[in-house]
Design brief:
This protein is of the alpha+beta class and 201 residues long. Helices cover 44% and strands 17% of the residues. It has two domains: 4-67, Arc Repressor Mutant, subunit A (Orthogonal Bundle); 72-201, no CATH class. It contains eight helices and nine strands. The strands form three sheets. The chain has a four-stranded mixed β-sheet with strand order 6-7-9-8. It has a three-stranded antiparallel β-sheet with strand order 1-3-2, with helices on both faces. Strand 4 (61-62) and strand 5 (67-68) form a beta hairpin.
């Protein structure tokens, strides 16, 4: 019989990327108190790194830079949402970066949420959660959500043809049902712009 530490490690090692873990990820292995104690043992051993209270990551070292790589802030934000059982969606600035419409990496990430409004410091950066209406959080498509948020951020009168081309190229990878769902929730000008571009292809 594996020890609890080894069972947790096995689950952690099954993720090849820098997945971020919360206590709830291991709730099928033992009771909450035992999981907390085991996780803190793994932190002391250097197997895990605590990002903020309740969030952990397996340290990843860059051979090129010879130092530990900081966790992706978007992954941290989604792990916090998972921990709090809340919905979140990024604001337009992150959407612009994610779609390649901006090369500037946001140092401070802002998300809309149905959970608690708050600011969380992660290293030198800050993650901000702003309370929002259910409609803004109802967007389903991973890409169509970003497209709608990015277009809203840019604005109808400032959207360039090159930006529309990039957005439409990204939307080719979106699930058609999710796209249709999100277009019904999008501002009218955005829905009309995307629909027109799709019909012209």
């Amino acid at each position: 019989m594996y020890s609890l530490d080894n069972q947790i490690l096995e689950k952690i090692n099954s993720h090849k990327d820098s997945h971020i873990f919360v206590y709830n990820d291991f709730d099928t292995l033992a009771n909450p108190t035992a999981i907390r104690v085991a996780m803190h043992r793994l932190v002391k051993k250097g197997v895990l790194e605590r990002i903020i209270p309740g969030l952990f990551v397996k340290p990843t070292t860059s051979k090129l830079l010879n130092k530990t790589i900081s966790p992706n802030l978007d992954k941290v934000a989604h792990a916090i949402a998972r921990k709090d059982n809340a919905k979140i969606t990024p604001t337009g600035v992150f959407a612009l970066y994610a779609l390649g419409l901006s090369t500037q990496i946001p140092l401070n990430m802002v998300y809309l949420t149905d959970g608690k409004a708050r600011k969380i410091k992660v290293g030198r950066s800050t993650i901000v959660f702003k309370k929002s209406s259910p409609k803004k959080l109802a967007l389903k498509g991973k890409i169509s959500k970003l497209a709608i948020l990015a277009m809203s951020e840019i604005g109808k009168d400032h959207l360039k043809p090159t930006e529309i081309d990039k957005i439409m190229s990204a939307l080719k990878e979106e699930d058609i049902d999710d796209l249709k769902h999100d277009l019904l929730l999008a501002p009218q000008w955005i829905a009309e712009t995307i629909t027109k571009e799709l019909e012209n292809e």
